[in-house]
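## Example record

The block below lists the input lines for one assembly entry, exactly as stored, with component labels intact.
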Amino acid sequence: MLKKDEYNQEEYNDYYRQEIEGAELHGYSSDDEGGGMGKLIALPILLALAVAGYFGYNMMSKSDDTIDDKSLQVSIDNLPKSVQSDAETDKSDTTPIVEEEDKSKKKELTTNTTKSKEADIATNSIESKKEETSTQKTVEDEISNKVQQVVTSSESKISPEEIASIVAAVMKQINQEKSSSTTSTTDVAKQDEELLNKLSTTEVDSVSSDLEKALENTNISENTHIDNSNQKQVDVYNKVTVQNTKGTDKLSQLSAQISNEIENASISSTTTTSEEDKKYSKEIKKEVISRKKEMRIIIVKKGDTLGKLAKRAYGNAMEYKRIFRANPEITRPDRIYIGQKIRIPLD
Amino acid sequence: MKKLLLLPLLITSLFGEDVVVKITKDIPYVYTTDSGKKIKIERIQDVNNRLTDDYAKTSRPCPPFCVQPTHIFPGIKNIEEIELLKFMENEVATGKGVVIDARLKSWFELETIPSAINLPFPIMQNATKEKAKRIFMLLGMTVDADGTWNFSKAKDLAVFCNGVWCAQSRHLISGLLKHNYPKSKILYYRSGFQGWKLLGLTTVIHKEIKKD
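Predicted structure tokens for the full assembly:
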């Protein structure tokens, strides 16, 4: 929980980054030529996205088609092999689920059912499994038909084990197809991403480079800020002290003469013309006092830390956060330098 | 070879003035003088800088610190930063004009706009005719043989105070007008010192606050 006055560095950084980006974009669009350029850049991006979307869609549809074809081809090619192959080799490929199915089928087979019935059971079992994945129903139907054809076409008797092996082979194929289909879709997605990335890097280059430049500049300024702070204080105050310089030019002379006139006038002795003016002068004096209390600038000496300064100013070292907040040029509270001017908020 | 490679870097570092934050697209900085010192008026180059001192303060009790009308007196022309900078380059540099800080002396000493001279608002408000005459004569007014005040050579005055919420300029200008200083020679920088600070423009300190 953050209190009202507490400082969240991350939030500040995020806000600041957004602000910089926003300012840069705004500055870019505010320019007449820049606005035109922005539109010109935006158009190719939109076109690129449209093209990418179109190709992406085509790729998706194509991949779906190929999957269907492959699944059919594989099922046709492999099924006879599985039928011809030995039961022992096929057994090694069976999964625990299939073994369970085997048991159930064995029970059913003991009731001397016909070959067609066995085939129906096999297809039913496949279908029951396929209900989980409704997207590949058509594939399942086709496979079941193929199984039926194979079973009915074979002359010799097929033992329950062999039927189980067929089912296992089909299951295996379907599983492989599933995985291949998922990988193919992910491949398409990846391709789309790559395509978009390629387009974005080429088409949006001018905009992104501007942003990068802006970010680089801010980083540079921050870096130089830190680097220079070791040697020379960065002038974030932009104040020139002229207290010790007494000019001989006309302006300086005029200033001196007027200030003499002011001192001779002695404001306090003069009578104010109206009550309103009196009140205003009083309020101004109040503001002067409050102003002096509000902020003070100190120069860091050897051995000073923000904690020590806070203890001196507020009597509590933990109040260093107030000083830290008032001095945005301090990047880390533990990094202040001798001779550095620090604003100490008072009141 | 290394020396040859470093040479352009050295030259650019010596002569290349890379102003990131310009005043306008064409004006990176402006020169003026203050207390006999040449002052380069530019904006703070640190793009991360923010105001943290009392010019970051948003609210003061109103009255008396109320938002000033756009035109405080009829016939008084308003100016903003660019006009003020041009005023410094032309009028102030040639002695035809002067920038007037209408705030109290303590505020002026603490920090002000370069080339400004201090004429606190109560001075003109409470000035007698004789006092006003002396001040006006310093500002270029002449007195004709018949005793009439001649403002033909009087300086143009660009008056400012703390900002939009500050009525000190209004008080000073009313004092000037009371003693018939010509309206045409008075310019009002309404954004004032807060507006100046907000842009990170160079300021001058006449008296630095020191640690107790």
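Helices of chain B lie at 2-15, 81-94, 105-110, 121-126, 129-138, 168-178, 192-198. Chain B has a mean pLDDT of 87.
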